[in-house]
Amino acid sequence: MRILLTLLLAVCLLQAQAQVPKDALLKRKAPESFQVLFTTTKGYFILEAYRRWSPLGVDRLYQLVLSGFYNNNMIYRVEPNYVVQFGISDKFELNFFWDRKKITDEPVLYQHKKGVVAFARDIANSRATQLFINMVDNPTLDTTIRSDVKGFSPIGKIIKGMEVVAKFNSQYGRRIVPIQDSIYLYGNAYLQENFPGLDYIIAAQIIR
For the whole model, what pTM was predicted? Predict the structure, then answer.
């Protein structure tokens, strides 16, 4: 019995390791511009990224999409008059891998207009995987100071499907906010139990 349990544990560890991207992926540079098709439970939207806006940020987006990170990704924050946010994996090992590969901050080279997308961050140099979509013009995000860093660096904009983004379940809004550490640790199970009805990204793929 002990041998069987050991073998099962070994198999699980191998599967987890297989799901973690290789460090070689971090060397991939993005094209000067490209499009990502996000297929969701409400339809699809297309993000067009521009490397000139944020070279490090757009490279990271490119790497994340290539790795399949955003597949089966719950859209856990929906504030119709502010932002929509997602970007924490259902798999702890993926969150752990990318969280250790944070990218440094970059200047804000484009305004936060409706449909513009940027990486969320907390302290300085903390951009990792979470993205937000501006649902309205948010000029304060161009200049707000957090941890001595000015603004959030846009990486691209939604060129098709903002009407789909506007349909995401917003019943929780700012009233009941998911604990990000719990999503990080327990994935979609935590969200489905405590925030039923949330929409999610089925798959994300580069189309151009």
Answer: 0.89
